[in-house]
Design a protein that fits this description.
Layout lengths: L2 E3 L12 H12 L3 E4 L26 E4 L4 E3 L7 H23 L8 E8 L31 E8 L7 E5 L3 H8 L10 H7 L9 H15 L1 H6 L3 E5 L4 E5 L5 E5 L3 E8 L11 H9 L5
Parallel strand pairs: 1-2
Antiparallel strand pairs: 2-9, 3-4, 3-5, 5-11, 6-9, 6-11, 7-8, 7-10
Helix pairs in contact: 3-7
Length: about 290
């Protein structure tokens, strides 16, 4: 099963037993989803009005907050509703970090906090280019924000007030995905990384690792035959549940659902229990090259 459940974990301040800590970390690094069906993120009274897709500023598909810069993006509203959004996202970020401390404490010393996002729009039926279509199986990679081999660790929580689950498809193990798509990818052109950075197309240097991951992301989404025939399962995350997943490793697609919170963390492979399980090390073994 691609999803490992922790039924009794019901508070953001809980901690797992020593045995469960090992189970959680080992399964996460092997490409499983850690699922907490009883862990809900409670809204404050003033935040109920945020449960509307009208919060989004077109054509944004989510609202994001960067605590380092204090910048809120994707929101239609000015203050005071924007202040409510910021306070909700700040609180979810703090809760998510507490969850990681309780479930994956050995990561904390090397973990860096990324953006916090809110996804108030229904994902099913949304029109977008195939590269931005998250209903297609993919592994995460970002065109403008290279992560240079760091793991992408994400915490999700479904806050839907209408009983609607967040429906995901979970695909094949990363190594199987890479074995299928890596042969289709040409090596990056010499000097392309420096040019992309000089033109401000990327925020930092796009390493060969980022090149391969981004091309794999695009090829997966663009291959409709693969989307249908790849080994996969469907899992529903109901309201008031939370899950943790390394989205650079796990092939996933969000098929339906509305009102989801998400916190991104970045982890260097040196912070893992077994860095040989990371996409970086897998791709380096398969290409025979250092990729960062």
């Amino acid at each position: 099963m691609d999803v490992i459940q922790f039924q009794e974990y019901g508070s953001w301040h809980d901690s797992l037993t020593k045995n469960d800590l090992n189970v959680a970390a080992q399964n996460l690094e092997q490409g499983k989803v850690l699922y907490f069906p009883a862990l809900s993120f409670e809204l404050q009274d003033t935040e109920d009005r945020l449960l509307s897709p009208d919060c989004l500023k077109p054509p944004s598909k989510n609202i994001s907050f960067d605590f380092r810069s204090g910048i809120l993006k994707g929101s239609m509203h000015e203050s005071p509703l924007a202040l409510n959004l910021i306070e909700m996202l700040k609180r979810f970020s703090e809760h998510s970090l507490k969850l990681i401390e309780g479930v994956l404490p050995h990561y904390c010393s090397q973990l860096s906090v990324g953006r916090t996002s809110y996804r108030p729009a229904e994902i099913s039926g949304r029109t977008s280019s195939y590269r931005k279509d998250d209903t297609r199986l993919h592994v995460d990679a970002f065109p403008s924000a290279p992560n240079q081999g760091h793991r992408i660790l994400r915490v999700f929580s479904n806050i839907n007030p209408h009983g609607q689950s967040r429906v995901w498809r979970l695909g094949e193990p990363f190594e199987e995905v890479a074995r299928q798509f890596l042969p289709r990818i040409r090596k990056p052109l010499f000097g392309s990384s420096a040019l992309l950075k000089a033109l401000n197309i990327t925020k930092s240097r796009r390493t060969p690792y980022d090149h391969y991951m981004l091309r794999m992301h695009d090829l997966m989404k663009g291959d409709l035959d693969y989307q249908i025939k790849a080994h996969q399962c469907v899992f529903q995350f109901p309201p008031n549940s939370t899950w943790i997943v390394m989205t650079d490793h796990v092939s996933h697609a969000a098929m339906a659902g509305q009102y989801v919170l998400e916190q991104t963390f970045y982890l260097p492979v040196s912070g893992m229990l077994n860095e040989n399980l990371s996409p970086l090390r897998i791709l380096e073994r398969m290409t025979g090259c250092n990729l960062v």
